[in-house]
Design goal:
15 helices; 325 residues; THO complex subunit 1 isoform X2; THO_THOC1
Length: 325
């Protein structure tokens, strides 16, 4: 025990000196000279890395995030020299995220994203993947899905880039669906609304009338997209086929609106707005008001979303899937 404490103290001093000048070679020489046993040396270096990290965190300067990035990079090089345990960079990152505010976490996460190639190296991937997943899940638990949407999305995109498609933790092996994702829409016929939206302004066009029947069929399809297993029932499949045919016919009878292109000089953004709010719009659910259906049918983006749902459902029905017993 006394020997470990002595190594820990000496390695901490060496580490702080060599980190300032980014000299991995000198640190390696001093470590090997002082302790020939690899397991004892790694244990002492690991603890020295934690001790030095604590010193950096206590400083809490505006440049603190940059120092932490350099420190993790230094730790990665130590792992490549077989001086530290391979999982140490990710474990240190987890400790850092636990001790920082969400604003600083968001800045530091850029470093994690930029080094996805490093985490996917053979040296790190198999041993670090669980720690990285745990670190990201801990971050997601701290975030608000409605207020920090962009940061949540960045974390999920990072995990998608990091893990291969064959990773079991990212696969829906038993074909489960989010059955709680209900799409609510009007169940009562609104006469005044329907009279207004079914007026044919252009007599030359042969449009399918947008009545309550079409409105009901259109939004009823969301229940099949939510739970495609209903399509295996003969009666439900007939309902789905009829609704889908009517909706696709409506798509073909309505012209798409031209996408307007606005010159960048005409766009003015409030400089006080946060960067994330300037570029992103968050819509949690579809808008299902009857008055909007005609506009939605003419919207190319809206059609694309619905057609993509059709594609996902058809691919699911054509694929070999396992059902949860």
């Amino acid at each position: 025990m006394a020997m470990f404490e002595a190594l820990r103290k000496d390695y901490s001093d060496y580490l702080q000196q060599c980190f300032k000048i980014a000299d991995v070679i000198t640190f390696q020489k001093k470590c090997v000279e002082q302790c020939a046993n690899e397991s004892d040396r790694k244990a002492a270096v690991d603890q020295a890395l934690r001790d030095t990290l604590l010193t950096i965190l206590i400083e809490d300067t505006p440049e603190n995030v940059g120092s932490l990035e350099s420190y993790i990079t230094f730790c990665i090089e130590l792992c490549r020299k077989d001086l530290a345990t391979v999982t140490m960079p990710v474990m240190l990152l987890g400790d850092i995220f636990d001790s920082m505010t969400l604003d600083k976490c968001e800045k530091l996460f850029t470093f994690v994203e930029n080094n996805v190639v490093v985490w996917k190296e053979d040296l790190f991937f198999s041993l670090c993947k669980n720690n990285l997943l745990r670190m990201c899940n801990d971050l997601l638990r701290r975030l608000s899905r409605s207020q920090q949407t962009v940061f949540c999305g960045r974390i999920l995109l990072f995990l998608a880039k990091f893990f291969p498609f064959s990773e079991r933790s990212g696969l829906n092996i038993v074909s489960e669906f989010n059955l709680e994702n209900l799409t609510e829409f009007g169940t009562e016929k609104a006469e005044d609304v329907l009279e207004q939206i079914t007026k044919d302004e252009d007599k030359t066009e042969n449009k399918i009338p947008i009545d309550y029947n079409l409105y009901r069929k259109f939004w009823a399809l969301q229940d099949f997209f939510r739970n495609p297993n209903q399509c295996y029932n003969k009666m439900y499949w007939k309902v789905f086929s009829a609704h889908a045919s009517n909706v696709l016919s409506a798509f073909s009878s309505f012209k798409l609106e031209e996408q307007r292109s606005y010159p960048t000089t005409c766009i003015r953004l409030d400089s006080t707005m946060e960067g994330s709010h300037k570029e992103t719009h968050y819509f949690a659910k579809y808008l299902t008001n009857q008055k909007l259906l005609e506009l939605q049918l003419s919207d190319s983006n809206f059609r694309r979303y619905v057609l993509l749902q059709f594609l996902i459902l058809f691919q699911y029905l054509n694929s070999t899937v396992k059902f949860k017993a």
